[in-house]
Amino acid sequence: MRPDLVEHSPVLIPLLFLGGAMIVILLSMLRPRLSHPIAMGVSGLATILAAFGLERVVSGGTIHYHLGGWTPPIGIELVLDPLSALLVLMMCGVGFLVLMHARRSLPSELPGREPPFYALSLLLLAGLCGIVLTGDLFNLYVFIEIVSLSSYALLGVGSKRAPLSAFRYLVMGTTAGSLYLLGLALVYMQTGTLNMVDLGEILPSVITTAPVGVGLTFMLTGLALKSAIFPLHGWLPDAYTDAISTATALIAPIATKAALYAIIRILFFVVPPNYTTELTPIADLMCVSAGCAIVYGSVMAMGQKELKRMLAYSSVAQVGYIAMGIGLASPLGYLGAVLHILNHACMKGCLFCVSGNLRYTIGHSYLPKIDASVRRRMPWSMAAFSIAAVSMIGLPPTAGFFSKWYLAKGALEQGRWILLSTLLLSTLMNAVYFVRMFEQIYLRPTPEGESGRAATGEAPRSMLVPTLVFAALLLILGLANAVIVAKVLEPMLGGLS
Amino acid sequence: MTISWARAVTGTDAMFEFFRLHFAHVCIVVLIAIGFFGMVAKRNFVKKLIGMSILQSAIILFWLVSAVKRGATIPIMTEEDLNAAAGSVDSALAASVDPANYMNPLPHTLMLTAIVVAVVTSGVAIALLVRIYRKFGTLEEDSILEQL
Q1: In sequence order, what are the beta bridge partners of B73?
Q2: B32-75: per-residue pLDDT in tens?
Q3: Are B59 and A138 an interchain contact pair (Cβ–Cβ within 8 Å)?
Q4: What is the pTM of this model?
Q5: What's the number of domains chain A is made of?
Q6: A149–B120: do the CB atoms touch at under 8 Å?
Q7: What pLDDT digit, counting tens, does each position of A77-112 carry?
Q8: Of the four listed, A45, A417, B32, B116, which is most buried by Cβ atoms within 10 Å?
């Protein structure tokens, strides 16, 4: 790919998605059938661009893109550094795979209304990439609201309860956005800048003043609400369960992660290093809420009978792991948090795709009714499910093991024994609810009388391929995690330790 | 104008002095409290939405108040400034302009965006409420919960 195109990738990736959303909605009046190819093409192009961007950043250093030629701190800058390049690649890649999955699953769930769905999906991806790329705190707010607004709309369609859950999410999400904006006003009044790098230089001298303290608290509370960190997770299970499975598969793996990324960016790279641990108890608070999230999410997930609802509660627990990495406030915690963001995106992408496959082929994803006949009918989907479940439990060849390993090492390093035992306990609880599924899929015999029913037909290829790619990614990420850590994540650690 | 105010303030009247100096912020805090109260305590979804809009407006006002300076004008260069800076390079131009004479334009431009966000949020919320009303026939939270 031409190098100057890669130099412009920070701005091209969000613009591609924005332009794609416009084209899809305009073209839908004439050619509604074209919306899926356009959405696929746009997200595929963005994925390729993000991959080249990552390669360029790892070998040649950070790209600072000044919008409109205004130099920061006056202008807005987009930053493609190793961390943001990795996450942009993750957002685009997951978006591409889920949109591929949507080709068959969407018409069965939302007949005749595909173009608006694709347009909203592309808007969502534009916002997600923007959150990750921006180097300006107000710009971050705008992108967060783009993501939130498109997810309210995407989650508002589905079962009878869906608009209700989406409205509740909207009230919570708008509160979160308002809190962030209020806090940002206080920080801006005290420092006079919105640029993250510039703010990072000014903050140490004013960090103990009241406006900055109150402002950062408001901002972090808002972001914690957006990322569903316990006890601010109330909107998540309902919103994810009631929406159509394609919308959940798109939003669950990546949307809360973007807000978590913003928290990581602010706490690790903007505020002074001793702020979270010595000046304020933010790190300890994060650890406590992470521990509660892990236990609460796992216990609730064990009690669910609906696959999507179980996965939604397990998302609460998984956000807890990432919050735990942030709360450890150490290089190991940072590695664990970022790796877990990456792993969880692939695990949840895979699991929600499988739940979509189940709903498409057998019409439901009600756990007690799943038995060996489902596995005989859909061997590949169930194989992908098993790999993702093994990764959720955290067994070694898969990606889930390695992020938990870094988190456990980080907890051990600081002597946080309660946190470490919570981590191990949650592994057991994850094992309980996924091994229960294994038992049903592989061992439970089909009930008498139903065995004669012709039950053939795996999910269509366009749904099976993304599911299997996600499963393969889990193995690849597990095997390649040393490379990611050494090449991409550790160079960012210079300013930390 | 300030003189007539100052005459009314006695040394002991610290409370009055506080409100006189911070009346804008006091109003904004009251608005934020009303907004939160509406969102948390009201059982009707439209009232929740109204509370949400009040909260958003209060925060927009808070930003705008931060830009205000006493005795300053809008950030457009006056003729004297331009004459003083005629033919000079950028640094001389900057030296000839006193920032204290101008209000900070940045909060206003930022809040234009925030207003757009607030309007769009209300739009999406009303669209969702229409769907809720079509499905449940009511917008009272209690009677919807009964139906579920």
Answers
A1: B102
A2: 999 999 998 989 999 999 999 999 999 999 999 888 888 887 87
A3: no
A4: 0.91
A5: 1
A6: yes
A7: 999 988 899 999 999 999 999 999 988 888 888 887
A8: B32
